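A reminder before we start the practical. When you read a complex entry, don't treat the lines as separate problems. The point of joint prediction is that each chain is placed relative to the others, so the output describes one connected object in space. Small molecules and nucleic acid strands, if listed, are placed in the same frame. In the example below there are two entries. Take a minute to note the order of the lines before looking further.
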Amino acid sequence: MKALKRSPIYIFLIIAAAISIFPFLWIVASATNASVDVSNGRLLPGAELLNNFRNLTEQVELGQALWNSAKISVTTTVLALLIASLAGYGFEIYRSKAKDIVFSIMLLSMMIPFAAIMVPLFQMFAKFSGVLPVIGIDTVASVILPTFTTAFLIFYFRQSSKMFPKEMLEAGRIDGLTELGLFFRIYVPTMRTSYAAGAIITFMSSWNNYLWPLVVLQSPEKRTIPLLISNLGSSYTPDYGMIMTAIVISTLPTALVFFLMQKHFVAGMVGSVK
Amino acid sequence: MKQAAATNNNLQPRRNRLQPTWTGWLFISIAVIMICAFYFYPMIQALLLSFKTGTGANIHYTGLDNYKRLFTDTVFLTALKNTFLYLIVQVPIMIVLALFISVLLNDSKLRFKGFFRTAIFLPCVTSLVAYSVVFKYLFGGDGLVNKLFMNLHLISEPIQWITDPFWAKITIIIAITWRWTGYNMIFYLSALQNIDSSIYEAARIDGASPIRQFFTITIPLLKPIILFTSITSTIGTLQLFDEVVNITKGGPGNATLSISQYIYNLSFKYTPDFGYAATVSYSIVVLIVLLSIIQFKAAGDKK
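Here is the predicted structure of the whole assembly.
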């Protein structure tokens, strides 16, 4: 009787789960099929995966794009965690009225839509190209510099710092650690899980970033994975099997991170709001 | 309590001596400089730019001309209308759906909870570009969705999901809902877990139906998180770019064009008009500020 009462709930959830999962199954199945079979609606796995992969690596610089994306995402993540956690720690541990005002002003930057600052940023980096080419247009640095500091991550680390046992700092001071030493020797190791969660969120958004790299990266060999996928997808005669292979490969890193660290992932998303 | 503890703490004065006031400022300095350099400074630049016209060295001030142009620019008005349509239709559907699913999943007697939660959250691991390309193919004229609907005899001829002005908007809305419902669900689920179950027990004893409990307990307690998700969804929708570009390219005509995409086109696709692009971009800023204030007010008044 009770189980029967719940059956509409189960049916609803099964449909919702099926709709959520179906595109994934389709991508994976299509990556193993020839383009013709995909457009004929074949849903079963085939034997064309290696063929698709070969076509993909022959037609586009997949390895190069993966390497570009990895370089950008890893550097962004490391810098973002360091700078944002220093700031979040600073705002919370050395709290003062003036710093609280600065903090609220920093939060306002979350309301700034990227499209609104895209053009001035482009002009800024175009100017850099003349003065200091290593950070000018079409460089790895130009992708990383304007994106790695986010008010969101500063806010997240400040919230996390509220739970940090501050007596540990007093103990460290008595042991003669410098203020920076306290941060690196005591705070960073204690807050490992916050760093893990922050790393996942930052890595994912950097790996998937599209608009700014589209604006600032111009030569084909600099392209990141989202630019490559977008390019493949806009083809007039798409090779479905090959494109789905590219999508599977590009989604693997983020899917892996998600499945291995699901708990941290959710903690990172929700942690900042609590 | 906290203040009393601080004044009684005899380490406090020594700590102040060891800790000059500038130490804290050093910790936050790099982040503050970066945010100023890459958010606030470009914002001011964009404002100045919005009063200018021309390209390259030929750029010069034209006063309010760009702003006058804004109100007579049919492409901009179309993009504005499209963005509002996405906002009014998609955000409420997604939030209600996410709330509904999370309440169902919060049932302690429900089985396979972990599976359902992971499955519904899974779309969030995809990049916006990748899922957009996938949706473009699934919803193509001879795509899988049409094949499925025709086999089920739901439709007699294929729906032009991508090339019909009306259906193209629906496709965009379906796509965004697929990608973000699970994301919002996670926020509601974690908030629901923090609600003391004894509140519900008391309500049950008083004879409140599950629906009544939902509206009188769950919704009021989740209000801050609903406000948070509706503001972030609103900001996200006003910035919509990746999906529209990769599913419909803004077409057919300009039927699905978003404001962000129009800014991109004005700056980098058509003959560059950075000044006017900056003017258009300020319209999003104004919208974000206005809508956030309205949502805060709406949430506050219900108290």
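Discuss with your neighbour: Chain A has one domain: 63-271. What might explain this?
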